[in-house]
Amino acid sequence: MFVGVAALLTITPGADMAMVSRSVLMGGRREAFATTLGILAGCLVWAIVSALGVAAVLAASQTAYDALRLAGAAYLVWLGVQSLWAAWRGLEVELPSNSAPRSHFRQGFLTNLFNPKIAIFYSTFLPQFIGPGDPALLLSILLAAVHIGFGLVWLTTYAWLLDRAVTTFKSSRLRRSLDALTGTVLVALGLRLAAERR
Questions:
Q1: What is the number of domains present in the chain?
Q2: Inter-residue contact 27 to 96 (CB < 8 Å)
């Protein structure tokens, strides 16, 4: 059951795929891979925090949940506006080559860290597979590793396919359209996250 739900969560379009798309458009597969590693690092952090019981506070506290939700929403909107601005001006959003992978990693990490849905998933779903007396931290990390493994395969494959498509149209209107689409999706995800209630 866990494997099925984790696989479904991984392939469902959302902020993770939008962030990887943004990274492909900003740089390419290397940047997208850095973003993917950041996203997966965020998942690992939530798994550890969940095992330690800290994430349960977020699940139980509406104030903590709302604070994280609004921070995540603002971050997604900000990234989306950057992509929309680049599309409107016909520019590629470039980062310095020596800091680009680190910056993309950080963006992927923060996107997942500020996503209360991931926190709730790890704090409410994972514990169902951990029995009394089981080593909670170890099992949480093992279950998260399954989810992270799916994410690594899926997001890396998605980035590779998108990069192949984008390379052909790097300097065309299609490229600007993809920038605009990615920016619109990120802004929409941010606004939806800001507006939703548990």
A1: 1
A2: no
Query: Is-contact 127 57, C-beta < 8 A?
Result: no
| Angle of helix 15-26 versus helix 173-195 axis, rounded to 10 | 150
Rounded to two decimals, what is the model's pTM?
A: 0.78
| CA gap 59, 63 in Å, rounded | 10
Amino acid 14 reads: G
Domain with 33 in it: 2-195
pLDDT at 56 over 70: no
Residue 171 pLDDT: 60
Per-residue model confidence as pLDDT tens digits over 2-54: 888 888 888 888 889 999 998 988 888 899 999 999 999 999 888 888 777 76
Per-residue model confidence (pLDDT) at position 59: 61
CA dihedral 112, 117, 119, 123 (to 10 degrees): -150
User: Which residues touch 126 (CB under 8 Å, ≥6 apart)?
Assistant: 47, 50, 51, 140, 143, 144
User: Alpha carbon of 130 to those of 122, 124, 190: distances in Å?
Assistant: 12, 11, 33
Nearest Cα to 108, choosing from 69, 57, 151?
151
